[in-house]
Amino acid sequence: MKKVLKGIAASDGIAIAKAYRLVDPDLSFSKQTITDVDGEVQKMQDAMDASKAELEIIKSKAKETLGEEEAEVFEAHITILSDPEMIGAINKEISDQKVNGEQALTDVTDQYISMFEAMTDNAYMQERAGDVRDVRKRVLSHLLGVELPNPALINRPVIVVSHDLTPSDTAQLDRKYVKGFITDIGGRTSHSAIMSRTLEIPAVVGSGDATKTINEDDVVIVNGLDGEALVDPTDEEIAKYEKKEQDYLKQKDEWEKLKTAETLSKDGVHHTIAANIGTPQDIQAVLDNGAEGIGLFRSEFLYMNSAELPTEDEQFEAYKSAVSKLDNKPVVVRTMDVGGDKKLPYLPLPAEMNPFMGYRAIRISLDRDDIFRTQLRALLRASNFGNLWIMFPMIATLDEFRAAKAIYNEERQKLIDAGQKVGDIKLGIMIEIPAAAVLADQFAKEVDFMSIGTNDLIGYSMAADRTNERVSYLYQPYNPAILRLIKHVVDSAHKEGKVAAMCGEMAGDQIAVPLLLGMGLDEFSMSATSILKTRLLFKELDSKKAAKLVEKALQAQTNDEVKNMVEEAMDSLK
Amino acid sequence: MEKRDFHVTAETGIHARPATLLVQSASKFNSEVTLQYGDKSVNLKSIMGVMSLGVGQNTDITISAEGDDEKDAIEAISETMKKEGLSE
């Protein structure tokens, strides 16, 4: 039976393949009395061995795709499966109580889980309960003879179907086999969606009930262009979508030709299109897609993928490699933005009621200036190898910017006094807190540039967490309230002769681009895969006509009104 | 029986990664290896046992081994402690 699922278009392209459900299978069982103790113990041993073999595969895959550090969690899982005390306790329970292995495993691991969970003074140890649960799940799956899916185990062309994809899931997706994916939850800016664009895998997210509707091995067409999926399509439909895929690939070739072109509007106004990146590995895609710079280099990877604070030299090498590869195009490095949902094992932060409004980003940097200074020194040294800019995240007040700048100047002077050279660095801020957006006219007098982080700016302005499905409708990039804030930032920057940039998802949004062009935004920084599409759109748009449209949009009343306005005006802007 | 005392200096104490390595190191030997922390002692070949102790920074532990390769076991474990920066 053919079914159509509607969702959000997360990553362009069409993919047709059989479904692979990345969904936990039913692992329920009943307690049973057994007679063959040796047989049951053997069964347990076999399940443990099979689990270990699987974990070895997952571990080596994770090592390849995520790196040594991330793979260690699987090493820990293997060690748990080799624990003589735990195995002893399980076997003892089987032979003493004459219960089935499933029950013995559950009872024994339950004790460990509650023990770890009881360690309330140690959040890290509490999380180990999760490790034990993970391991138990895998062994149970083998005892029950059901497959526990894992992205690392995929070895045939598939469409991955899941409720959501975690960062470690997506990092393990093998592009050779994973043709597309569809999830129940998520939006265009959710982690899974961003990753799908980085990996260039067609994807539909937020479909509601993909995992309920799609069975293992169903043929699925993922239409990442329109945000829908067809389950069990007819032959005609398959043919139709194969044609659509061809057309899309042809269009992509068109974009390809724009790779080395300048970003010019129809009336010849130049704007910069840059890319957002999270690790140095992303730089290749930046170059491949013809970016004119990096508008946001998130430096968190240095802190997140490490067991301890990254040293100055480690950081220096990473920044140096980025600026050198960009060949004098600007590279905007955002200083450490941890806290919020990004935790560091070696920098324990107290649990907070409201982490997104808590101790994070520049607030930590100014408080722990030892960490901040190390990063600034590494950046200053790297500035000799290209065109490096520094951006401070989560700036709320001018005092914060001044304090950060003072520390920067001290470190700069120290290096110069020590006889080291430093490049000419531009210092700027992220505009993501509404207070900073409103006061942009004052900030513009002191900063070299301002870059609008739309995801957070919209979130804080609307007081809505976009990852919370119940309030995600408030993620309204075209709401006139947001547009007025953005316009104010752009105008303020220009009044002082400073650069106005945007590094949020909105900068590559095809509805937002005409408006941002009309406002005169200087730099648009986006996912590498959105660059060529956006450059083509620029070529078709007249900036003066776009400016007129902005005037109208700023007087509109709702998000949808603006959206319809832009869609209707699109042809007349060309 | 071979015995050695350690002062744990690592900021994070004996966490997952170092615990895993200690257990792997101990598991290479035939000897029974025990980790004592305060009034509790556990089998050092048991990751759950080691983690259950929640050994933090600035604590004192004793590791002992008993068996035909007890000397080598203690040497190897001391090496791991040092290499992982758990103790000086």
From TrEMBL, chain A:
It comes from the Bacteria. Residues 41-72 form a coiled coil. Its EC number is 2.7.3.9. GO terms for biological process: phosphoenolpyruvate-dependent sugar phosphotransferase system. Residues 155-227 form the PEP-utilising enzyme mobile domain. Residues 6-128 form the Phosphotransferase system enzyme I N-terminal domain. Its cofactor is Mg(2+). It is found in: Cytoplasm. It holds the Pfam family PEP-utilizers_C. The active site is at H191, C503. SUPFAM superfamilies: Enzyme I of the PEP:sugar phosphotransferase system HPr-binding (sub)domain (SSF47831), Phosphoenolpyruvate/pyruvate domain (SSF51621), Phosphohistidine domain (SSF52009). Residues 252-541 form the PEP-utilising enzyme C-terminal domain. Phosphoenolpyruvate binds at R298, R334, N455, D456, R466. It catalyses: L-histidyl-[protein] + phosphoenolpyruvate = N(pros)-phospho-L-histidyl-[protein] + pyruvate. Its main location: cytoplasm. Keywords: Coiled coil, Cytoplasm, Kinase, Magnesium, Metal-binding, Phosphotransferase system, Sugar transport, Transferase, Transport. It is an enzyme of class 2 (transferase). PANTHER family: PHOSPHOENOLPYRUVATE-PROTEIN PHOSPHOTRANSFERASE (PTHR46244). Belongs to the PEP-utilizing enzyme family. General (non sugar-specific) component of the phosphoenolpyruvate-dependent sugar phosphotransferase system (sugar PTS). This major carbohydrate active-transport system catalyzes the phosphorylation of incoming sugar substrates concomitantly with their translocation across the cell membrane. Enzyme I transfers the phosphoryl group from phosphoenolpyruvate (PEP) to the phosphoryl carrier protein (HPr). This is Phosphoenolpyruvate-protein phosphotransferase. The lineage of its organism: Bacteria, Bacillati, Bacillota, Bacilli, Lactobacillales.
TrEMBL record, chain B:
One of its GO terms (cellular component) is cytoplasm. PROSITE patterns: PTS_HPR_DOM, PTS_HPR_HIS, PTS_HPR_SER. Pfam families: PTS-HPr. Its main location: cytoplasm. Residues 1-88 form the HPr domain. The keyword Hydrolase does not apply. GO terms for biological process: phosphoenolpyruvate-dependent sugar phosphotransferase system. InterPro entries: HPr, HPr-like, HPr-like_sf, PTS_HPr_His_P_site, PTS_HPr_Ser_P_site. It is found in: Cytoplasm. The keyword Membrane does not apply. Keywords: Cytoplasm, Phosphoprotein, Phosphotransferase system, Sugar transport, Transport. It comes from the Bacteria. NCBIfam families: PRK13780.1, PTS_HPr_family. General (non sugar-specific) component of the phosphoenolpyruvate-dependent sugar phosphotransferase system (sugar PTS). This major carbohydrate active-transport system catalyzes the phosphorylation of incoming sugar substrates concomitantly with their translocation across the cell membrane. The phosphoryl group from phosphoenolpyruvate (PEP) is transferred to the phosphoryl carrier protein HPr by enzyme I. Phospho-HPr then transfers it to the PTS EIIA domain. PANTHER family: PHOSPHOCARRIER PROTEIN HPR, PHOSPHOCARRIER PROTEIN NPR. Belongs to the HPr family. This is Phosphocarrier protein HPr. It comes from Secundilactobacillus malefermentans.
